[in-house]
Amino acid sequence: MSGLITRRFLLGALGASVVPASGFANAPATSLRPQLRGLGAAPQGGPETVIKASGLSGEVAFAVADAKTGLQLEAVGSTTGLPPASVAKALTALYALDVLGAGHVFRTQVVADGPIKNGVLKGDLVLVGGGDPTLDTNALGKLAANLKAAGVREVRGKFKVYDGSLPYVRSIDPEQPDHLGYSPSVSGIALNFNRVHFEWKRGGNGYTVAMDARSNKYKPRVAMAQMQVKSRRLPVYTYEETPRIDKWTVASQALGKGGSRWLPVRKPALYAGDVFQTLARANGIVLENPKVTRSRPAGTVLAIHQSAPLQTILKGMLKYSTNLTAEMVGMSATVARGGKPSSLKASAQEMSRWAASKYGMSGTSLVDHSGLGDASRVTPQDMLRALVQVHKVGILRPLLKPFAMRDSKGRVLKSHPIKVDAKTGTLNFVSGLGGFMTAADGTELAFAIFTADTAKRSRIKRADREVPEGARAWNRRSKRLQQKLIERWGALYGS
């Protein structure tokens, strides 16, 4: 048996960046690296050659390992902490699964805080948020119908909305422009991912606008968000916060003939209460205008909406990269660990401590659970540690979205021999990718790639953060580099 060369030894010997060819007697004149089936020759030179060829400014850091053994195969700057962007959501998923469990469900309730006699509630009606990030208008419609089915036809007291199961956060990332729907407010109740639908149409007398909470079954107008069209070119949107109303204006010269977009909600409890009030009225139950309460009621539960299991919610979060879901499940896990966090950052720091204890991620420091804040830092080595450990139990890869490999023109290669399941992460001048790949011969690797030009990002004005100059081209170069590295690893370690 001593005369046999193990596959692991061969892989180490073939990596020219690890052992130079001159270290072997009678070194061959041609490279011993295997060919990547269907893709031509394997990449020559070390990883620095691939990075330099990308033309990417800023920093590049990565680490890759055998997913089964944990043996690190190649790394550049693996201890460098960079913004993970939405790759952080993969860690949030692990945090929520570990603390809450895959079968955990969130419950939204309608509670009677007072006696009911002959269909009349002589007390308050409370819509109780339970931290469900997926609550939508359809669910509120069913709750309103179930309230009627429970025999309630009149409410003599107040109508309240409880949002105190989680801290209130005005914006996931305050550095983002006010109108961006991916940075809404967070609280213990959410509706339609805390976004309101703005629609406009141009007619003979100017524009007509509508703000609603539409779903595939309902289209209720909302009173807590208002829009006015102003005769101007810039700014496209302005926002003013008042105690009960989100007041928006939009530039007429930016609207065209018609269109729509989702805008963030800054008053989630009032938004949910506004919509539930409308849907209750459609069922013959008239409610007062909603009032927000942070005190959980202890009355009679009249109707309950239960979310899908957490595992299903997380799969959707990782597929669509929904920031609100990440923040709500992350904070829910922190609450379950022993106390309500004072802020989003405090909850993220608790998750960072959990990651250090659970996976040895001592170089990780997060400011949120979604990766939207660019002050978060994760090292590739830390992320790789977590990926290798969870690969043994198989809890993450089934939740990750397949990563599309593309040709030189950007077209998806459906028959590519390398299969990748990973979480992408994209901010302006920040791009990350972390997950698992299966090479042509079935070898499974875990990897984490982080790239960032923090200097360029820091120079972006707040008003320009939606589409800053040069960001899209930079991010495209980063994604091409990610694929080149994956193909390199497939050639060196798995064919």
Automatic annotation (TrEMBL):
UniProtKB keywords: Carboxypeptidase, Hydrolase, Protease, Signal
Source domain of life: Bacteria
InterPro entries on file: Beta-lactam/transpept-like, Peptidase_S13
One Pfam family cited in the UniProt record for this chain: Peptidase_S13
E.C. number: 3.4.16.4
GO biological process, one term: peptidoglycan metabolic process
SUPFAM superfamilies: beta-lactamase/transpeptidase-like (SSF56601)
GO MF, one example: serine-type D-Ala-D-Ala carboxypeptidase activity
Leader sequence segment: 1-27
Top EC group: hydrolase
Family of this protein: Belongs to the peptidase S13 family.
PANTHER family: D-ALANYL-D-ALANINE CARBOXYPEPTIDASE (PTHR30023), PENICILLIN-SENSITIVE CARBOXYPEPTIDASE A (PTHR30023:SF0)
Protein name: D-alanyl-D-alanine carboxypeptidase DacB
Phylogenetic placement of the source organism: Bacteria, Pseudomonadati, Pseudomonadota, Alphaproteobacteria, Rhodobacterales
